[in-house]
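[[Sequence with tokens]]
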Amino acid sequence: MIRFAFTVTALTAMTLALLPFQLMAIRFDLPLQRTLPRLYHRAFCGLMGVRIREVGQRSRQAPVLILSNHVSWLDISVISALTPVVFVAKSEVATWPVFGWLAKLQRTIFIERQRRQKTAAATQEIAGRLLGGDAVVLFAEGTSSDGTRVLPFRSALVGAVHQALGDGTQHSAITVQPLSVAYLGFRGVPIGRALRERVAWYGDADLMPHFFGVLSAGAIDVTVSWGSAEAYDISADRKEIARDAEKAVRRLTAAALRAGPPGQTSPAPALIPPQRLPDPA
């Protein structure tokens, strides 16, 4: 209970302290609008006891579209703690208490998944962000899973790659990079089937009880694995792009789950230096 109260108090104070700076950075289109969320999420993960092991590195090519699997709302903080990014989220997120507000502060792109006629507008906005220099993360499964498997990647919004090439004249190709997020440990215990729902947020699980459960956990181990980045030109097929990324994320996730959480007998820093995991057989 003491830990829970301390964490909530610290998160509230940090959020209120940084809020004016982020609002000003967005208002005047300052570079700080990209770097401040990263600092915020690094501190957030540290307070929550989330220990991140990073495998590989994000491509420094631009524009870059990152195609990731999706396990939990916590994915947002885990990925943001590593690199400045913006996310693509369903429009309902914008209406969520607190979380919707924070998503807007991170300049999230909101889309209406249930209205296909809105797909063109969504891809145009994603394209604009890509051409504007943002690294865009798309949870390509279209929903979250329990983390033990990767659902089929949807290709509709991958059309933003073509849109970006069509709208801009300064780029002949867009870089696409697969990303895997795998949760491996909970309170120092490897995550098995019994503990998976304590971290994974999917199905009909309520957000706030899940959030408070994670807040009280104290230690969560997660491996974030970057796949090989590929450059695609205007002739590339969006379904092929999604299919290639899906295969890479499946391989990376399987390797992380097989390796399991790092053996630690003492508290570790919030971020663990990148390590190479063995390739799957």
